[in-house]
Amino acid sequence: MQVKTRVETTINGEQVEFLCEPRQSLLECLRDIVGLTGTKEGCNDGNCGACTVMFDGRIVTSCLVLGVEANGREINTVEGVAEGSALHEIQKAFLQGAALQCGICTPGFIMAAKALLDQEPNPSEERIRFWLANNLCRCTGYDKIIRSVQDAAAKMQETNA
Amino acid sequence: MRWVDYESPSTVQEAISLLSGEKKANMLAGGTDVLVQLRAGRGDANLIVDVKNIPELNEMTLDPGQGLTLGAAVPCYKIYGDAGIGKAYPGLIDCASLIGGIQIQGRASIGGNLCNAAPSADSIPMLIAYGVTATIASADGTREVAAEDFCSGPGRNVLQPGEMLVSMHFPLPKANSGARYLRFIPRNEMDIAVAGSGVSIVINDGVFESARIALASVAPIPLFIKDAGEALQGQPVNDASIAKASALAKAAAKPITDMRGTIEYRKHLCEVLTRRALNDAVRRAKGEQV
Question: Given A54, A80, A106, which residue is the final one in a domain?
């Protein structure tokens, strides 16, 4: 018998319960069941990074995690990055630096960049490029993204100084 | 993806009984290969057995007398985040930090890389060079298989129905030993090896005491080049010895021509990568940072 599974998880600090099929990815569950459509689907096979979310404090491609695996775990998505209407420094830097055009890759880049700056406040350009290698962007050519992450890092350090 | 059921056993015994049951089961560790394959319609699994809640598969124990026991489901980031393992097995860190990107390394395991048995798998040449043995469990007990005997063809391994990989054991590194994995890809990151070379050496008083060399992406399985390592045994640590072993690695490679490279190019890479990996391993054996 094909039975849906009940998943209890924490998404952006809130307790969430949902029913899903065991074959559904966390990405599908977030978008189609929970209704958090900020996380994007690009390749659906782990190459492009558009679906990057935090899973128990580590960035993962949510297309390669099953929704049922989220049971008892802590998920953070791009919807939880801003505080109310106050954008995060990384989000502001992406807007000011024109680090996006079509925007599909942006939530993934924001989540990956935030994970980096949360653990390494002042990474080198090489380190940023290495860290973001699992995120693809077909519009910007990457330079504006890298510079925006550097700008955000500088701003975040000023704020924390 | 077609319908699959999901089970998350907490013991090896439970997992084995699920693997031996009526349903056709696929094991899930990091899922970075198996979920892609299921979604592409490969195989006929109708049950996913998530092995990440089994303690033995999460073990990562560096015993000063016994070496390293690495559970099959330990993700790459935990391996390269461990300073003790980095010091004892730098060649393992080379692999764990270049498989996929940061997101993939948050999930993907060395055990999964071994079971997936891709000819291009980045960790398997290094497992072979380190002389790793895999512990396989079934209802009948456990058996050990050397890393070089684990893969039986592209995407195929020696696991029989009802068997599962539990852990891998890395022998204790000897004094004055060094190891290195190098691969060539056309991009800087996130690509499949055109060729790769994993080496592990022990030097003693300016002479190679022993060496093991294995290659990626140049045969249907990750290739152990026994004679290239043996050729170094008892030879002085110099360019001539290293050139001879690298030439033997090149000679043993049996690559195909495909979109990633031609036979000639891949064979050439085997010589270059093995030479560079041996030089780096020598530097590591002397305590230098590479």
Answer: A80
Query: Of the candidates A27, A59, A80, which is a domain's last residue?
Result: A80
Q: Which of A21, A22, A44 sits opposite B39 (nearest CB)?
A: A44
Q: Do residues A32 and A66 both lie within one domain?
A: yes
Query: What residue ranges define each of the domains in chain B, with the CATH number in brackets?
Result: 5-50 (3.30.43.10), 55-170 (3.30.465.10), 185-285 (3.30.390.50)
CA–CA separation, B218 vs B264, rounded Å?
Answer: 11
- Closest chain B C-alpha to A106 CA, distance in angstroms: 15
Question: Do A75 and A93 fall within a single domain?
Answer: no
Number of domains forming the structure of chain A: 2
Of A5, A66, A131, nearest to B102 by CB-CB distance is A131
pLDDT, one tens digit for every residue, chain B (290 residues): 889 999 999 999 999 999 999 999 999 999 999 999 999 999 899 999 999 999 999 999 999 999 999 999 999 999 999 999 999 999 999 999 999 999 999 999 999 999 999 999 999 999 999 999 999 999 999 999 999 999 999 999 999 999 999 999 999 999 999 999 999 998 888 889 999 999 999 999 999 999 999 999 999 999 999 999 999 999 999 999 999 999 999 999 999 999 999 999 999 999 999 999 999 999 999 999 99
The Cα B236–Cα B204 span in angstroms is 9
Q: Tell whether A50 and A100 lie within a shared domain.
A: no
Q: Which chain A residues are closer than 8 Å to B106 by Cβ?
A: 55, 58-60
Residue A1 has pLDDT above 70, yes or no: no
A130 and A147 together in one domain: yes
In degrees and rounded to multiples of 5, residue B152 shows phi and psi of: -120, -5
Pair (A112, A57) in one structural domain: no
Contact A46 B5 (CB under 8 A): no
Contact residues on chain B for A2, CB-CB shorter than 8 A: 3
Who among B6, B36, B103 is closest to A45 (CB)?
A: B36
| Average pLDDT estimate for A55-64 | 98
Please give the residue of chain A at the shortest CA–CA distance from B192. Answer: A47
- HEC per residue, A17-36: EEEECCCCEHHHHHHHHHCC
Separation CA B47–CA B27 (nearest Å) = 8
Please tell me which residue of chain B has the smallest CA distance to A51.
Answer: B103
Give the residue from chain B lying closest to A61, CA to CA.
Answer: B103
Computed over every residue of chain A, the mean pLDDT equals 97
Euclidean distance between CA atoms A131 and A135, whole angstroms: 9
Could you tell me if A74 lies within 8 Å of chain B, comparing CB atoms?
Answer: no
- Cα–Cα distance between B207 and B22 in angstroms, integer? 56
| Smallest Cα distance from A137 to chain B, Å | 14
The predicted model scores a pTM of 0.96
Q: Which domain holds residue A100?
A: 89-160
Size of interface A-B (CB pairs under 8 A): 77
Please indicate, yes or no, whether residues A43 and A96 belong to a single structural domain of this protein: no
State the CATH number of the domain containing residue A16. 3.10.20.30
Compute the distance between CA of residue B253 and CA of residue B274 in angstroms, rounded to an integer. Answer: 11
pLDDT higher than 90, residue A2: no
Alpha-carbon distance of B261 to B216, in angstroms, equals 13
